[in-house]
Amino acid sequence: MAEALARSPDYRVLRRLVARGIYVPTSGQEVRTGILLDTETTGLDCAKDEIIELGMVKFDYTADGRIVGVRDVFSAFNEPSGPISAEVTALTGITNEMVAGHKIDDAAVAAFVEDSLITIAHNSNFDRKFAERYWPLFEQKAWACSATEVDWRSHGFAGAQLGYLLNGAGYFHQAHRAVDDCHALLEILDVTLPTTRAPALALLLENARRPTMRVWAEGSPFELKDSLKKRGYRWNDGSHGRPKSWFIDVDEAALDGEIAFLRTEIYMRDVEPAVQRLTAFTRFSARV
């Protein structure tokens, strides 16, 4: 019945996501290893809030971005220093009873990620900061963000939320654990995009490898904040030692145009804004 419906243009069939089993690598096959990572935390502030769950899926992929198979899975709870709030429990489904007495094994995390080339999260701007705070080894890893480094809408998806992407890939899942979302992300990245005829992972890796330039509009006139927002600038509140300022990330080729915009439409004079060059090894990190 499902196959018959799927052949009709009047129906779309969603299948329950079943996590892949562990595969055995083929001798002589050239593959690379990546990590899909998701955290659940007591809040949004990586300086003071705590991780209460860590989920990871280790997978192999080819040079052209095709997923070969799952190498290993990691899932662990962590009891925070204080009670989990009712709001966090409602959001994550994690209770104080579930984490009681649990602690994530630092050595196990290090061993799990040691041979990986890249870490991928669906919100790396959030997950990388927490991961680096708990396990500094993540500072040495390249990172990619599957939520922001692929323009999913331009490839036919309804949005970048994990649920939208999973449905677009033909699946649904009942997310209960961080590792469940990692399994979901694996299937999303394995989808062949109709626009490129290649897996989504290939496009994500291509974009992650490309350096970007972070331009800071420090001291910009308050009355022009709407112009900055319209152009895509975001506000930084001064946390993590960063300027209290508007900023934007652009491709290297667009840097001159961005500086010209600031000079002619924001400052109305010749300025040299602060610029940082970001790569997969520094992007999304609290160190930058």
List keywords for this structure.
288 residues; alpha/beta; Nucleotidyltransferase, domain 5; 2 domains; five-stranded mixed β-sheet; four-stranded antiparallel β-sheet; 10 helices; 11 strands; globular
Structural features, described:
With 288 residues, this protein is α/β, with parallel strands linked by helices. It folds into two domains: 2-209, 2-Layer Sandwich (Nucleotidyltransferase, domain 5); 212-278. It contains ten helices and eleven strands. The chain has helices at residues 2-7, 86-92, 96-99, 106-113, 124-134, 162-168, 178-189, 200-209, 225-231, 255-266, and strands at 15-16, 32-41, 51-61, 67-77, 118-121, 142-145, 171-172, 212-217, 234-237, 244-251, 275-278. It starts with a helix and ends in a 10-residue tail after the last strand.
- Per DSSP, the total helix count is 10
Structural class: alpha/beta
Beta-strand content: 15-25%
The CATH superfamily of the largest domain bears the name Ribonuclease H-like superfamily/Ribonuclease H
Mean pLDDT: 95
CATH architectural name of the largest domain: 2-Layer Sandwich
How widely separated are the two ends?
53 Å
Order of helices and strands: HEEEEHHHEHEHEHHEHEEHE
> In which order are the strands of the major sheet placed?
4-3-2-5-6
What is the general shape?
A: globular
Work out the radius of gyration.
Answer: 21 Å
CATH-defined fold name of the largest domain:
Nucleotidyltransferase, domain 5
Uncertain spans: none
Total domain count: 2
The count of DSSP E runs of length 2 or more, i.e. the number of strands, is: 11
Q: What portion of residues is helical?
A: 25-40%
CATH class of the largest domain: Alpha Beta
